[in-house]
Specification:
six-stranded parallel sheet; 6 strands; 176 residues; 6 helices; alpha/beta
Length: 176
């Protein structure tokens, strides 16, 4: 399936972003399974802490989270692949829609990775803008900003011009 999506992305001259929703596994284990794809120059990686569950938690009933050390382990591993294989800078995106999903102040910057904290979650424009502004006021400065929109779940969906009027303007915009 990944091969099929990568071919389609290449036909469109697009980047393929592999999004890990690990359930009761962990991000590092799941990322290493994707290594053959991540060694490609046009494949990035996204971590979705909402779906990182503890042993007794149920996805959809609990909002997951991840410890910074786990994210740092994945980013260090991915940065080593970029360096070893002499790849171009690779997108490394972390979805976040609550402050306690990941402590972004303890995340480490990595050479070779374009690290993006992506304001995730659905709702109306006011709440999405408020969340984005709260996240972009974080003390970390080495991250790029991302903003995610949902065609079906968002109410009063923001168009591209409205999104680009956000301050700071997001570096990555995802419509799902």
């Amino acid at each position: 399936m990944i091969r099929r999506y990568l071919r389609a992305a290449r036909r469109a001259k697009a980047l393929l972003l592999l999004d890990i929703q690990p359930g009761r596994s962990d991000f590092f284990t799941e990322a290493t399974l994707l290594e053959p794809w991540l060694r490609q120059p046009d494949v990035g990686l996204a971590l979705d802490p909402e779906w990182r569950m503890g042993p007794d938690q149920v996805p959809g009933k609990v909002i997951g989270s991840v410890q910074p050390r786990e994210v740092n382990a994945v980013s260090a591993w991915l940065a080593r692949i970029v360096e070893r294989d002499r790849l171009p800078q690779k997108l490394f995106l972390i979805h976040q829609f609550t402050n306690d999903m990941v402590d972004d102040t303890q995340l480490k910057p990595r050479r070779g990775l374009a690290m993006v904290l992506n304001a995730d979650g659905f709702g109306g424009q006011a709440i999405k803008k408020a969340k984005y502004h709260a996240f972009t006021r974080s003390p970390r400065k080495f991250f790029h900003e991302g903003f995610k929109l949902f065609y079906r779940e968002d109410t009063d969906l923001m168009g591209p011009r409205e999104v680009l009027r956000l301050r700071p303007p997001p570096d990555v915009v995802i419509y799902e």
